[in-house]
Design brief:
Helix 1 packs across helix 8. A hairpin with a 3-residue loop joins strand 1 and strand 2. This protein has 15 helices and two strands. The chain is globular, with a radius of gyration of 20 Å. The protein has 363 residues and is an all-alpha fold.
Length: 363
Amino acid sequence: MDNEKLTIRQMTMWFILYQLGSAFLVLPSNLASIAKQDAWISLCVVLTVQLLMMMVYGGIAKQLHGVPFEQYLQTLLGQWLGRLFLLLFTLMYPFLILSLVLRDLADYITTLILPETPMSAIFVLMLSVVIYVVYCGVTTIGRAAEVLFFLVMGLLALGYVPLIPKMSLDNLLPVFEFGWKPVVHASFTTIAFPYIESVLFLYFATHTKKPQEWRRLVIKSSLFSGFLFMCVTVIVISVLSQGVVSTVGFSSYFAVRTISFSDFFERFEIAVSVIWFIAIFFRMSLLMYVSAKGLSTVFKMKDYRSLLIPIGLIAYVIAGTVWPNTAALFTTFRIWPFYAMIFGIICPILIWIAGQIRQSVSN
């Protein structure tokens, strides 16, 4: 069993970087393509739903009573049913997301930065780093998050503050031009990616002394990342207009490319790339750790580290074949919210209800 512990500060920073992850580059485009200039309002709806779901996640954290989440499922559902549920949950949610994020990273690099680089090289390099840091333990990742978090915040300021003079608030008007339905529709996608993935943070609930501390830090990380998303979305739409943002795949990157002061202060899109690489690193690290912890519990292994290389190899294969072309990618994005809500909303609610019934029967 992993006896390493994370501090509240480390977990908060890690969770913020996790939520920034893949969403940082594509979120403004995804929202603007549906909600148009009201994309920022969708984020308000998303955070409201996230706070409501935290009541469920916090309820599960209270039921753990110091038992790791992956072991609690066996206690709650019985050994065999609990292990089967944990196996399916791990393979179909955190492990699948790990493979999708790896492919997303490779697509970004081969599209915008290094078009002649084979995807396999990117897969190997990123997986090697992630496997190594997860092997070193969560304490190492937590300390890295403490250091790199401030670098990410500094690069965010460096990349987007210079865009403020270029903002035209007219691009955010009129409010609710197309009604409230597009706003709700856009928020539906963002709830699934990345916010209800907060269910995976339950694997870290035992790192705090009280469930309330874990609940508060997850809420804090969600609100902070939501504030950053809102700032970036408002700036990007104000600078480029919703028409441009909705048609550009990586609008957060594209907006920063427009910075130019006297042919000297320019080309700051590399800052956005660095932010994204760091956020993706912490996102993949958490997914790799959770996947390894879940599977090691299923197969009754003493140490999750022995599964890191096999998980990495399988993710390598899946990432290379998960979608053959852009059309398949868009289809995946349309289906994903419904799929993710099974694991991020329905399963947690059922677990919480089962825990409540178990407590009432035992009393």
